[in-house]
Amino acid sequence: MNPLIGHRKNQYTKSPLQEYPSGDKRFKILDATIKRYQYQQDALIEVLHEAQELFGYLKNDLLLYIAHSLKLPPSRVYGVATFYHLFSLAPKGVHSCVVCTGTACYVKGAADLLTAAEKYAKIHTGETTLDNQLSLLTARCLGACGIAPAVVFDEMVCGHQTPELVTEQIKGWLEHGSDGTTRNS
User: Fold this and answer.
1) What is the dihedral of CA 35, 39, 42, 47, to 10 degrees?
2) Phi/psi at 23 (nearest 5 deg)?
3) What one-character DSSP code corresponds to residue 43?
4) Is the distance from CB of 3 to CB of 75 less than 8 angstroms?
5) Which regions of the chain does DSSP assign to beta strands (E)?
6) How many angstroms separate the CA atoms of 77 and 41, rounded?
7) b/e sequence 108-132, b meaning 16+ C-beta within 10 Å
8) CA angle, corner 9, sides to 7 and 11, nearest 5?
9) At residue 137, what are phi and psi to the nearest 5 degrees?
10) How far is CA 100 from the centre of its chain?
């Protein structure tokens, strides 16, 4: 269920500043961004991007703040935030593993890579480990079909991956933290 739909209307009309400490400079920066776009509803993606840069992820009360500031229904803000892959509604891990699930990668075993990653990290796609070391994600296509199956480890595209290579990378991160990077190519 969408957490932003179904609340009483008076919750949307509260002053957003009541919910945040006045000393948080991130809100001043976000407000400046909203003002720079002249409170235009069409600037929603740019505002969401700035909010994510400032706060790390888009939590529900932040989405409500943006909806109120741009005079948009919260359902629209939530819909845009969940539609685009670049937005995150949960904190991200120190490391990220993005498995490509495009046609070429899928045919060459992306599902096995994802299963191995989920099993070893003990999380499902879209989740972050409890110690915040790893976020496991998928992408519809990385545009790296020639090296399928492909995985992005911390923004580094690695091709010709196997379940063993993916598990080795994740094992390094989870057992050794940031020092455990064993790049595969």
Assistant:
1) 50
2) -85, -5
3) G
4) no
5) 95-100, 134-139, 151-153, 156-158
6) 10
7) bbbeebbebbbebbebeeebbbeee
8) 70
9) -135, 170
10) 15
Amino acid at 163: P
Q: Is the dihedral of CA 47, 49, 50, 54 positive or negative?
A: positive
Closest by CA to 157, choosing from 136, 182, 131, 183, is 183
Q: How many whole angstroms separate alpha carbon 164 and alpha carbon 40? A: 49
Task: Enter the tokens of residue 89.
Answer: 């509604």
- 185 residues of the chain, pLDDT tens digit each: 455 544 444 444 444 444 455 567 899 999 999 999 999 999 999 999 999 999 989 999 999 999 999 999 999 999 999 988 778 888 889 999 999 999 999 999 999 999 999 999 999 998 999 999 999 999 989 999 999 999 999 989 999 999 999 999 999 999 986 544 444 44
Distances (CA, A) of 143 to 96, 113, 121, 137: 18, 18, 26, 16
Amino acid 67 reads: A
**pLDDT of res. 24:** 78
- What's the pLDDT score for residue 177? 67
